[in-house]
């Protein structure tokens, strides 16, 4: 008998990655393509369908029964599976993505917000397995967020819940891409780390601007911090502090079991933790603050693909149960 499997796809603003995922949560094979949305919707759609069909046929050739396709999408996905709005993939706004894919591929399809897919991936196969309810915070170019309540994705009335990155931490602070001011994203993302580092360096007379020009990425700030650079250590301390402030608020509001921290910046989890935990201890109630474990994500780059595979797999399982 053929082994059951599903396709999981992580669609990003720059790259798109997909894989065949087995029942055990292991990736069988992967493919990638450039998203290249600037070539226009028609071009993207034609290339994306070829990409999806190639994944399905490769799975079938290898002897799997490909039962469905899950997609993590970088934007707001309405309850009917259509795209509402995407900051990075604007031409897909109001596109009936789920319906069109289902029709073209003749397969069950489920589309969810990418941060929610990542949260589900960590919930089932990653750092969130021990927790009933947790918030997932992804510290990358921006700050993404997703929530798992009672082991299920909580995406709110409009599918728009979980925007941890756009909780204000400085009312009159740095301007944010969302149109507001002082959002967490402007203080705890990878690019925010670089910005804070440069601001701190400017304050130290002897270093001047020379060193700051050489450092362009969060990884470089981390390397500088690990070699004892006070401005780099200060940048991580500041990011940890702001994140701790937000997590304390979430702990008091929702009394969750945990916060799972993922994304590129979380590779340096230990640099964030001291100020993050200190801030939580200061601000959260003792019961809610101590309950909320703060742990690093474990699935890395694969979390989005695995989560996308899970959303469709669980949709199929539910449909089967409903039939009984
Ligand atoms: Zn914002």
What would your notes on this structure say?
This protein has 324 residues and is α/β, with parallel strands linked by helices. It is built from eleven helices and twelve strands. A hairpin with a 4-residue loop joins strand 2 (15-22) and strand 3. The longest helix has 25 residues, at 230-254. It starts with a strand and ends with a helix. Zinc ion binds next to loops.
Keywords:
single chain, 324 residues, alpha/beta, Nucleotidyltransferase, domain 5, 2 domains, five-stranded mixed beta sheet, globular
Report the biggest beta sheet as strand number plus sense, adding barrel if it closes. Answer: 5 strands, mixed
The total of beta strands comes to: 12
- Total domain units: 2
CATH architecture of the largest domain: 2-Layer Sandwich
Taken from the alpha-carbon principal axes, the silhouette is: globular
CA-atom Rg in angstroms: 21 Å
What structural class results from the helix and strand content?
alpha/beta
Physical arrangement of strands within the biggest beta sheet: 3-2-1-4-7
β content, as a range? 15-25%
Highest CATH level, the class of the largest domain: Alpha Beta
Could you name the CATH topology of the largest domain? Nucleotidyltransferase, domain 5
CATH superfamily of the largest domain: ATPase, nucleotide binding domain
Helix content: 40-55%
Chain-wise SSE layout:
Blueprint: E1 3-11, E2 15-22, E3 27-34, H1 41-61, E4 64-73, E5 76-77, E6 83-85, H2 97-105, E7 109-113, H3 114-125, E8 134-139, E9 143-149, E10 152-153, H4 185-188, H5 190-202, H6 210-214, H7 218-226, H8 230-254, E11 258-262, H9 269-283, H10 286-291, E12 293-296, H11 303-323
Parallel strand pairs: 1-4, 4-7, 8-11, 11-12
Antiparallel strand pairs: 1-2, 2-3, 5-6, 8-9, 9-10
The structure holds zinc ion.
């Amino acid at each position: 008998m053929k082994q059951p499997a599903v396709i999981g796809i992580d669609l990003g603003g720059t790259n798109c990655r997909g894989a065949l995922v087995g029942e055990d949560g292991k990736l069988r094979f992967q493919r990638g393509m450039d998203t290249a949305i600037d070539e226009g919707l028609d071009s993207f759609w034609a290339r994306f369908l070829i990409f999806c069909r190639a994944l399905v046929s490769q799975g079938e050739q290898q002897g799997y029964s490909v039962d469905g396709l899950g997609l993590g999408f970088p934007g707001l996905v309405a309850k009917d599976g259509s795209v509402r709005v995407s900051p990075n993939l604007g031409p897909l706004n109001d596109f009936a993505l789920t319906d069109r894919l289902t029709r073209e591929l003749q397969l069950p399809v489920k589309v969810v917000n990418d941060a929610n897919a990542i949260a589900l991936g960590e919930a089932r196969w990653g750092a969130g397995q021990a927790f009933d309810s947790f918030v997932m915070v992804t510290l990358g170019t921006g700050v993404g967020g997703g929530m798992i309540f009672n082991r299920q994705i909580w995406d709110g009335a409009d599918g728009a819940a979980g925007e941890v990155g756009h909780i204000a931490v400085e009312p009159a602070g740095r301007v944010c891409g969302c149109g507001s001011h002082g959002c967490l994203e402007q203080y705890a993302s990878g690019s925010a780390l670089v910005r804070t580092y440069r601001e701190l360096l400017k304050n130290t007379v002897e270093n001047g601007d020379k060193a700051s020009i050489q450092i362009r990425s969060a990884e470089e700030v981390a390397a500088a911090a690990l070699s004892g650079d006070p401005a780099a250590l200060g940048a991580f301390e500041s990011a940890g502090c702001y994140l701790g402030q937000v997590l304390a608020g979430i702990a008091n509001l929702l009394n969750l079991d945990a916060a799972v921290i993922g994304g590129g910046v979380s590779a340096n989890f230990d640099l964030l933790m001291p100020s993050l935990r200190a801030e939580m201890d200061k601000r959260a109630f003792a019961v809610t603050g101590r309950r909320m474990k703060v742990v690093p994500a474990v699935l890395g780059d694969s979390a989005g693909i695995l989560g996308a595979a899970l959303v469709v797999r669980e949709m199929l399982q539910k449909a089967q149960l409903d039939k009984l």
